[in-house]
């Protein structure tokens, strides 16, 4: 479990990297693909998003831009999963740039398999790992501008806890890995009051100040969607079949 690592030669390249941004980028990506989006294409740079999507017919694209939790002027939407309805996204490509979540996906692009995880698709993520059995799995919390994120760490703990339990991993395999043990402990402590955790989290409080209460309620719905966004080509994620 890492917080927005740079994939460098020394760090090695994992077989599988799961980017997590519970509030709200990866929750939004899962929801958009569940609602019928053709694909999700992530950009850390807003201008590159505009240039790349310019070549798409307007009826085949939707531009999502968020900075600091708020919608960027000139974009079709911000980064709320509640805006990803079938009417809005069906058959369209979601071109998305957010403050952190899209950056962490870009950072782990070179992993063997890259996917987006959140509370809403925790089970889909765990099932992928149980069935594909990758040797090395990075669970990457997106955080806020490189800092620790309570909600992403709790989600990483939810995934790790399922894996430890369902793979029946001996405790020695996780002991000493403070990040994993810590994330599981955090999840265990908050798993029955995840909305309360969101309200404690600094980014949750930022979103509450932006009147995004309903977003927080949506983002904590464990295993809501059986959809796994998986990278088909650099920066482009589709619904895993
Ligand atoms: C992020 O990428 O930092 C978040 O998704 C921002 C947001 O709440 O939209």
TrEMBL record:
Which keywords, in A-to-Z order, does the entry hold? Hydrolase, Magnesium
Class of this enzyme: hydrolase
- SUPFAM superfamilies, A to Z: ComB-like (SSF142823)
Reaction(s) catalysed by this chain, per the record, are: (2R)-O-phospho-3-sulfolactate + H2O = (2R)-3-sulfolactate + phosphate
Identify the HAMAP family for this entry.
ComB
Family assignment from sequence similarity: Belongs to the ComB family.
Which cofactor is essential here? Mg(2+)
Its Enzyme Commission number(s) read 3.1.3.71
Its recorded name reads Probable 2-phosphosulfolactate phosphatase
InterPro entries attached to this UniProt entry: ComB-like (IPR005238), ComB-like_sf (IPR036702)
